[in-house]
Design a protein that fits this description.
21 helices, 15 strands
Length: 641
C-alpha cells in the first residue's frame, strides 16, 4: 500500500468514526468533529513529552488516540499531538543535519582539490611574474620555511612546511575544525534524544565520520603518481605528499572523534554492549585501528630507515581501512544513504593509479640494466644504464623482478642523461670548473688539474651507446644497497632485469616557472646534479650558471663528458671537498632589479637537505637586506616521502 492509499483509507476510517459518534450524540455534528483547529500553542513545564520551546498543534479527531510505543496498531488511530511534534522535531533535525554532513564533506573535498588548481592558474595572469608586489609576496610569504630556517631538514622527526604550504594546511585545518563544530540544527524536545548533550554526541560524531572520508578522498588523489593535478598545476609531487600527510592527520583525528563520540553516546544510553556485538561496529573498529596504526608506521624515521616496511604496511593498512569502512557502512545502512560512495571514490583513485602504472611498465617492456660502481667515491655511488629506451628527464620508478628483491616494489631514480646524445671526444674546455676555497684541498687540486684533460674512460659503457638511459644513485639502504652488493659480488658490473614506470615530472611545471626568468642559477650537491642535467641541456637561450659541489672527485670524473656537451652559454663551477659561499654568490646574482634590466633570476637547487635549506634561507636573507634586489623564482628539486 502506498502512502497516498493509506492516507485515503485513514480519512475514510475517520469519516466512519465521526458517523458513529453522531449516532450516539445528537448535539455533536460531523463537521465539528472533523474540524482541525490549527491554533498553535506553547506548552509550559519540562519533561520528555513537552517543553517551553516546543509548539504543538491543537487538533481533534474522532479516531482513537495513540501515544506511541511498541504495540502494533490494528486500527486507524490518531497520533497524540505532542508525540507527533516530538517525532517531527527528530526527523527534521535528522534530515537537516544529514544534509549538513554531506555538505561539509563535499566542501572539504572540493576546496582541497580546487585550491591548488586555482592558485596555479594565477601563473597565467599577464604581467604577474614581473609584478614587484607578487615577487615580494613570494619571497616573504611563499618560499621561506613556516618557522625557523629548516624545510628539507627534519625538525623533531617532522618536515616543516614552507609558508606557502602552511597556508594551505591552515585553511584545510580551519575548515575541518569549524565545519565540525557548526552549523547544526537542534529542536527540543524530540523523540530520539532525551537531552541536548546526547544529541550533540550523535550528530557531531556522525559528521566527524563523514568529514574523515572527504579528507581521505583528497589525500588518495594527492598521493597518486598519475594524479591529474600534477599536470594541471605547477605544484611538485613533494608538496602534494606533504599535504597528503596533513590530510591524513585530519582523517585520523576525525575518525577518532567519530569512534569515541558514538561510543560515549551508546554508553550513555546503556546500549554499548549491544552495539559492540553488531557487525557494523566490529568493522568500524577495524577501520579505526588501521587508520590509527598508519600514524606511527608512517613516521619519517620509519620511512627513511625501513622504507620497504613502510610501503608494505601503508598499502595494507590503507586497503584494510577502506574495506573496514565499506562493511561498517554496509552492515548499518546497506546502500540506502550513500556513505559508501566515498569508499568507491578513494578506491577508484587508488586502483586506477595502479592500473596506469602497470600499463606504463608494459609499454616500456622488460629491459636490461647494467649496474656498476663509480670509482673514487668510496663506494657511495652506482651507475645504472638501461638499454633499449631513452628517457628525456624526470623521475622513473624502477622495478627489479628478481627473486628476493621485493619484486612488487618500484623505486624512484632521477634520469641523468642519454649516453647516445653525448658527442664522442667531448672535452670540458668550454666549462672550466672553479674552486671556491682559498687553499684547495688535494681533491680540488686533482680536479683542477684533470678537468681539461681527455675524458676518463667510462666505468660502464661507452658514451656513444645509443638508445640508453643512465641513472646515477647514491647507495645507502634498501634497493641501492642491494644493487651495490650485487655489483661487488660480480666484480664491478652486473646485468639485472628491470621494469620501468615513467618518466614522471614530479617537480611541477618547471619550464613554465622558469620561462619568465632572464637568467638561471643551478646549485647542485653530489648526486643532485642528475636532476639538473636535463634542464641544463635545454638551456640554450638564457644566461645560466651551474655550481656543483662534491665530497669526492669520482662523480665529477664520471660526468666530465656530460658537462662538456652542455650548451656553451652555461658557466660551470665545481668544488671538491668544499662549499660555495652562498651568501656571496646569491648577493651577486640578486644584485640590481627588474628596472635596471637584470630581469628575474631563476634558482634551481638539488642536493642534500641541509644545502637546499641554506639556499632557501640565504635567498630570503639577501632579498630582505636589499629590498630592491632582483625578484627570483625558486625551484627545489627534491624527491621526498
Amino acid at each position: 500500500m502506498s502512502y497516498q492509499d493509506a492516507l485515503a483509507a485513514s480519512r475514510v476510517d475517520e469519516t466512519h468514526a465521526a458517523s458513529g459518534m453522531n449516532m450516539t450524540s445528537g448535539n455533536t455534528t460531523s463537521g465539528e468533529h472533523l474540524h482541525m483547529r490549527l491554533k498553535s500553542r506553547q506548552h509550559d513545564g519540562h519533561g520528555s513529552s513537552s517543553s517551553s520551546d516546543m509548539q504543538v498543534f491543537d487538533v481533534s479527531s474522532p479516531l482513537p488516540v495513540t501515544v506511541g510505543g511498541k504495540v502494533v496498531l490494528n486500527v486507524t488511530s490518531f497520533v497524540d499531538p505532542e508525540t507527533w511534534q516530538m517525532g517531527y522535531n527528530y526527523m527534521y533535525d535528522f534530515e537537516a543535519n544529514e544534509a549538513g554532513h554531506s555538505t561539509t564533506t563535499i566542501v572539504i573535498t572540493i576546496v582541497g582539490i580546487s585550491l591548488p588548481i586555482f592558485l596555479s592558474l594565477l601563473r597565467f595572469s599577464p604581467g604577474l611574474s614581473k609584478s614587484l608586489l607578487w615577487n615580494e609576496i613570494q619571497r616573504r610569504a611563499i618560499y621561506p620555511a613556516a618557522w625557523g630556517s629548516r624545510h628539507r631538514v627534519p625538525v623533531a622527526g617532522a618536515v616543516i612546511p614552507t609558508r606557502g604550504q602552511a597556508m594551505y594546511i591552515f585553511l584545510i585545518s580551519f575548515l575541518n575544525l569549524i565545519l565540525l563544530l557548526t552549523p547544526y540544527v537542534y529542536h527540543r524536545p524530540q523523540a530520539s534524544f532525551l537531552t541536548r548533550g546526547a544529541q550533540t554526541l550523535s550528530i557531531v560524531g556522525n559528521r566527524a565520520g563523514s568529514m574523515a572520508m572527504g579528507n581521505v578522498a583528497v589525500l588518495f588523489l594527492f598521493a597518486a603518481r598519475n594524479s591529474p593535478l600534477l599536470y594541471i598545476t605547477d605544484w611538485s609531487y613533494g608538496t602534494y605528499l606533504l599535504l597528503h600527510r596533513w590530510l591524513g592527520y585530519w582523517a585520523i583525528i576525525q575518525t577518532i572523534i567519530h569512534s569515541f563520540m558514538l561510543m560515549a553516546y551508546y554508553m550513555s544510553k546503556d546500549m554499548y554492549k549491544a552495539e559492540f556485538a553488531r557487525n557494523y561496529w566490529s568493522w568500524g573498529i577495524v577501520a579505526t585501528v588501521c587508520v590509527c596504526a598508519m600514524l606511527p608506521f608512517s613516521h619519517l624515521w620509519v620511512r627513511q630507515k625501513f622504507y620497504e616496511f613502510f610501503l608494505l604496511t601503508h598499502i595494507a593498512l590503507s586497503l584494510l581501512f577502506l574495506i573496514g569502512y565499506y562493511y561498517h557502512i554496509w552492515f548499518l545502512y546497506t546502500y540506502n544513504w550513500g556513505y559508501e560512495i566515498w569508499m568507491f571514490i578513494a578506491g577508484a583513485i587508488w586502483g586506477l593509479d595502479r592500473v596506469i602504472r602497470v600499463i606504463r611498465m608494459a609499454l616500456q617492456g622488460r629491459r636490461t640494466a647494467i649496474v656498476a660502481a663509480i670509482k673514487d667515491v668510496d663506494g657511495d655511488y652506482i651507475r645504472i644504464d638501461i638499454q633499449g629506451t631513452e628517457l628525456k628527464g624526470g623521475v622513473a620508478y624502477l622495478c627489479f623482478p628478481t627473486p628476493g628483491w621485493q619484486f612488487w616494489e618500484t623505486h624512484p631514480f632521477s634520469v641523468a642523461f642519454n649516453p647516445g646524445s653525448i658527442p664522442e671526444g667531448s672535452s670540458t674546455e668550454n666549462h672550466p670548473p672553479a674552486s671556491t676555497s682559498e687553499e684547495p684541498t688535494p681533491d680540488q687540486e686533482k680536479s683542477e688539474s684533470t678537468i681539461n684533460a681527455p675524458p676518463a674512460a667510462n666505468t660502464t659503457s661507452t658514451f656513444a651507446s645509443h638508445n640508453t638511459t643512465t641513472f646515477i644513485a647514491r647507495a645507502r639502504t634498501g634497493v641501492t644497497k642491494q644493487l651495490l652488493a650485487r655489483v661487488t659480488k660480480e666484480n664491478g658490473s652486473a646485468r639485472i632485469r628491470v621494469l620501468i614506470d615513467g618518466p614522471y615530472h614530479h617537480s611541477g611545471q618547471v619550464s613554465s616557472q622558469l620561462s619568465p626568468c632572464s637568467s638561471i642559477l643551478y646549485i647542485a650537491g653530489g648526486v643532485g646534479i642528475t636532476a639538473c642535467l636535463p634542464y641544463l641541456k635545454k638551456n640554450r637561450d638564457k644566461s645560466a650558471k651551474l655550481l656543483w659541489s662534491n665530497r669526492k672527485s669520482g662523480l665529477l670524473t664520471e660526468l666530465q663528458p656530460v658537462l662538456a656537451a652542455l650548451p656553451s652559454n652555461l658557466l660551470v663551477e665545481t668544488s671538491i671537498g668544499g662549499r660555495f659561499d652562498l651568501d656571496a654568490v646569491l648577493s651577486k646574482e640578486l644584485a640590481g632589479s627588474v628596472k635596471t634590466g637584470n630581469g628575474i633570476l631563476g634558482v634551481v637547487v638539488c642536493g642534500p637537505p641541509g644545502m637546499a635549506d641554506d639556499v632557501r634561507r640565504k635567498l630570503s636573507q639577501v632579498s630582505t637586506r636589499n629590498v630592491m634586489s632582483r625578484p627570483y623564482v625558486l625551484v627545489d628539486e627534491a624527491f621526498s616521502w
